[in-house]
Amino acid sequence: MSHDGAAALLEVRVSSKDHVTAGGRSLCVLRDLQFTLPAGRAGAVVGPSGCGKTTLLRLIAGLDRQYRGSIRLPAGGRLGMVFQEPRLLPWRSVVDNLRIAAPQASAATLAALLARLGLAEHAEHFPGELSLGLARRVALARALAIEPDLLLMDEPFVSLDAALARELRGEIAALIDEKKVTTLIVTHDIREAIELADRVFLLSTRPARVGATLEIGTPRRALTKEAADALQREADAAIEAMRRR
Ligand SMILES: Nc1ncnc2c1ncn2[C@@H]1O[C@H](COP(=O)(O)OP(=O)(O)OP(=O)(O)O)[C@@H](O)[C@H]1O
Ligand SMILES: [Mg+2]
Questions:
Q1: What is the C-alpha to C-alpha distance for residues 19 and 222, in angstroms, rounded to an integer?
Q2: Looking at ligand 1, which atom is closest to the CA of residue 188?
Q3: What is d(CA 99, CA 93) in angstroms, rounded to the nearest whole number?
Q4: Ligand 1 within 6 A of 55 CB?
Q5: Which of 28, 58, 81, 211 lies in disulfide reach of 64, CB 3.0 to 4.6 Å?
Q6: Nearest C-alpha to atom 25 of ligand 1 is from which residue?
């Protein structure tokens, strides 16, 4: 495998990734999985539960280097990651969680970021005092505080109620547009992917590969319900075709 930076795009070419199960068996999780995402754009990876989405994100983040293939990160290569669980340091306040991740950021920058995500009044709270929705916002603020060249998010809205998920989705969409950070978001919700991303990668069942790619074409803000419905039908048809293959 190789893992290097300095590209104008995120380029993922994984020829194979295996996990070893508890029983010692080899499990092929990703096979011939390829996609590219231009710098400054948002991509979404959509796939069924257990198909290998988190595995893929961990490869891109460099947390797992046991795979065959190559991954090139956008220029700069600085990563911000929002895990499937918020993973905050429980004995540190909200603002300290950000400070530890981004020691270079000024107090004013961190305060502005917390305000932007509706967290101003929680800066001195500890993670145990936060609801899951707030903790997810803190995890996102922490990832943004490091001013990443690539923002990776693993199902950031899972187990939030629909209204809260919609609100946070809107915040993330606005932040992506504002900061123009290359973003890859993992989700199993096609509608969410269509509303957030410029390009949607539909994964097959395990071993996962990109079975179809949707180009959204319309800027996030201008996407009408009719256009989103049409894209969703296109995605459903592509998934059905993958199933029959
Ligand atoms: N460290 C590991 N060791 C062994 N098997 C693993 C490991 N991590 C994941 N797996 C297996 O690899 C497969 C893909 O897991 P992964 O977590 O990447 O899926 P996912 O698409 O993120 O699932 P979900 O939608 O439930 O989050 C699963 O069968 C899982 O049990
Ligand atoms: Mg996962």
A1: 41
A2: 25
A3: 10
A4: yes
A5: 58
A6: 49
